[in-house]
Amino acid sequence: MNKILAPVDFSATSLHAANYACVLAQNLNAALYLVHVLELGHENLYQPFTLHEKYNNLMIDERKEELQNLQTELQGQYNIKIKTQLLTGSVTEAMLKFSRTNEIDLLVMGSSGMGKATRFLMGSVAEHTIRVSSIPVITVPAQSKLQVPGVILFATSHYEENEKLLNPLVSLARTFNAGVRIIFFHDIDSDNTFYIDNAKKQEKYRSYLNSKYNDVDFQVEILEGKNFVDTIEAYEKEKGVDMVALVPYAKSFFEKLRSTTSKIAFHSSIPVLVLPSIEENKKEDQPISNVNKT
User: Fold this and answer.
1) Topology of 151-292 in CATH?
2) For residues 148 and 23, is the Cβ–Cβ distance under 8 A?
3) What pLDDT digit, counting tens, does each position of 200-234 carry?
4) CATH topology of domain 3-140
5) DSSP codes of every residue in 90-148
6) Same CATH topology for 3-140 and 151-292?
7) β-strands 272-274, 137-140 pairing
8) pTM score, two decimals?
């Protein structure tokens, strides 16, 4: 990961996320882009256009100054390269377009926040971002610690082998020497065939991962409970998890997780890494080459 983008609205939550992005950038030796998106007003019909233009120019100048001040402050605390950019327009679209143009590898956002001019780190916009982003997104809650992850929990319904999907997770684990705990959730009120079938595959999958990524400590287990979110949160506390990784699949069991992802991302007390799903991984019952072989 060479480039990290941290959108800021100058709220306490977004500034905390920016600091978390700095911690990651410093350890990953990555460049950090601080971006603010300004949604300019043009719809007040009771004032002349010249007043709109004057107001917008004042807003732009103010936000540029705030970005520059934040850049100076953070560069005084962290040994990283920081660039700033003021964007205008629809927040999610502007941010993701900038990410594509500048080949951003990771997006780091506050999980809540309300700034002076926009609500782009709040609710529906942040949720939309993690659903449509083609790059990984880390949501950072305000109460989280500014530290690198030592244990990462990856909740999935697939025996993932796709390198493009796994690479961001593996990259973070390698950089921070973090262990990865891959869990498959089993609803204890459902059919036990899920548990039996997956229990047989766990060791093969763990062996595959540790063989392919032999410098990362992978553990694979089935996590039982009645409620996915509650079970994940209990596991976090019990095992000292520092980051949760999820994939918002469109089908199968994790169709439920598309909404559950948002619940975890915006209610978790620790950072949540949302990995963009790969189209081929969305196909139900797709063979897993190294796991299903006997």
Assistant:
1) Rossmann fold (3.40.50)
2) yes
3) 788 888 889 989 999 999 999 888 888 888 888 88
4) Rossmann fold (3.40.50)
5) SHHHHHHHHHHHTT--EEEEESS---SS--TTSHHHHHHHHHH-SS-EEEE-TTS-SS-
6) yes
7) antiparallel
8) 0.83
